[in-house]
Design brief:
By secondary structure, this protein is α+β, with helices and mostly antiparallel strands. The chain contains five helices and 21 strands. Strand 13 and strand 14 form a beta hairpin. The protein is globular and about 70 Å long. It holds the Pfam family DUF3491. InterPro entries: DUF3491.
Length: about 290
């Protein structure tokens, strides 16, 4: 089996015994994983777990299958003459979500199993969290990179922050922290223009006027031994000073950087250009 760019190719044996294609999905974690998929060629006919096959009443073009913790589930696919026995589908794992309603510290072995944590008026404390930052960069610059890449955003009444962390012996991970109902009003009800022109300046200058008063005691959160201030994230998110306004060349009509960029903005701009060249289009950039 080979994987590239989030795709999986199953290399079939030259001589097969039947018209089935079997793909095993292993869940090594301690929580269940849910797989949703759409078939573009072929169908899914059943699944096996713990040596027990479960065949669906009919061939399916869509599937929604749970792979239980610490198990392997095998998916059985069937091709057709119309598609030259090709199996093609697109699937994804539904994000594993943890809801917290109190300020009890969350153990590393618990939170690291999840993709998203929803915080409901509580002080979040993630034990063993080693924040991953750009080498030698300041905390302020690392936050600016998060804003530029849309890793900090507001959805409705929620504030979402997506920090990166160092996995124990297995690279870099990311987890989305969603502070539920942090704001008094649903900010998705206003137009983008109003949000940029009116809401953002208010977030930058008077964040507490938009924050729900019941959150007053829960504006700090802890990643490992380090504390972070939600108010600071909100203010900096609303501040537009980290956005570089490009200049249009009157002759070539190409966009160019201003002649004199502050050092922090110049570094940020270079980082995003390098990232774009390496990974292609990026979600958001100054």
């Amino acid at each position: 089996m080979m994987s590239l760019n989030n795709t999986v190719t199953l290399m079939l044996r030259k001589f097969k015994r039947n018209d089935e294609h079997i793909l095993g999905v292993e869940n090594r974690g301690s929580i269940n994983l849910k797989v949703d998929g759409d078939m573009y060629a072929g169908h899914i006919k059943g699944a096996m777990e713990h040596r027990h096959w479960h065949e669906f009443p009919h061939l399916l073009s869509k599937f929604d299958i749970t792979v239980h913790a610490r198990t392997i589930k095998y998916f059985a696919f069937k091709g057709s003459l119309a598609t030259n026995d090709t199996i093609l589908f697109r699937s994804y794992f539904e994000p594993a979500i943890l809801d917290t309603y109190n300020s009890t510290p969350v153990d590393l072995h618990v939170w690291s199993q999840y993709d998203q944590i929803r915080i409901h008026k509580a002080t979040l404390k993630l034990e063993g969290f080693q924040v991953y930052n750009v080498t030698t960069a300041t905390d302020a610059l690392n936050r600016q990179l998060m804003y530029a890449q849309n890793f900090v955003n507001i959805r409705g009444r929620d504030l979402s922050i997506k920090p990166f962390y160092i996995r124990t012996g297995s690279g870099i991970g990311a987890i989305q922290l969603v502070f539920k109902d942090l704001f008094v009003n649903d900010l998705s009800d206003i137009t983008d223009r109003t949000f940029e022109k009116e809401a953002k300046p208010l977030l930058a200058k008077k964040p507490h006027s938009l924050i729900d008063p019941t959150y007053k005691e829960f504006l700090k959160f802890f990643l490992g031994e380090t504390s972070y201030d939600l108010t600071q994230y909100i203010q900096e998110f609303g501040d537009t000073s980290h956005i570089v306004k490009m200049i249009r060349d009157p002759k070539t009509h190409e966009l160019q950087e201003p002649a004199h960029l502050p050092v922090i903005l110049l570094f940020l701009h270079i980082q995003l250009i390098l990232r774009k060249k390496r990974f292609g289009r990026i979600n958001c950039c100054p």
